[in-house]
Amino acid sequence: MVVPQNIQEALKGPKWKEAIMEEMKALIGNHTWDIVESPKDKKIVGCKWVFTIKYKSYGSIDRYKARLVAQGYNQEKGIDYDETYASVTRLEAIRMLLAFTCHINFKLYQMDVKSAFFDRYKNEEVYVEQPLDFENPQYEDYVYKLTKALYGLKQAPRARYEGLSKFLLEKGFKRR
Q1: What distances in angstroms separate CA 39 from CA 10, 42, 47, 87, 110, one per listed residue?
Q2: Roughly how many angstroms between the first and final C-alpha of the chain, as a whole number?
């Protein structure tokens, strides 16, 4: 199976088209953006589609995945964002989780998170262009003002970390 290199190629295949529509439905359903007039004083970040094939552990195709990502490499530190963050899991944390689940006889499951960055609002104002072939004809010169972080943005991992931290603190966990 060939992975499409652009949106035009992907839209020709029914499975890829279905994956694209699933991604757009998730973005819209999670209220990831508001459509607004293009601001004159803000940089507009591009966006692009990334396509992958997910495989099951024994090699057969599990699903076709389309992800709309912001072209965050256009962003400049201090202008478009203040801080980046690379989420890293320490081996000690994994060991502690496994030991704790064994101690209290919990079942531990692995899961695939389809939209990890949709869960938290961002701190900065970020505007992205409408995705190619998905432009709203009523609002041709408009852009999306993000209300939630999008893959590819420099500040997206920080937003996810802050959201998870807030949730855990509200549930009674303590920071060391």
Answers
A1: 31, 6, 17, 32, 42
A2: 48
> pLDDT tens digits, residue range 40-72?
988 888 898 999 999 988 889 989 999 998 886
Q: How confident is the model at residue 117 (pLDDT cuts 50, 70, 90)?
A: very low
What backbone torsions phi and psi does residue 158 show, to the nearest 5 degrees?
-65, -45
φ and ψ at 104, to 5 degrees? -100, 10
- pTM of the predicted protein model: 0.69
- Alpha-carbon distance of 129 to 174, in angstroms, equals 40
Distances (CA, A) of 19 to 90, 92, 173: 33, 37, 37
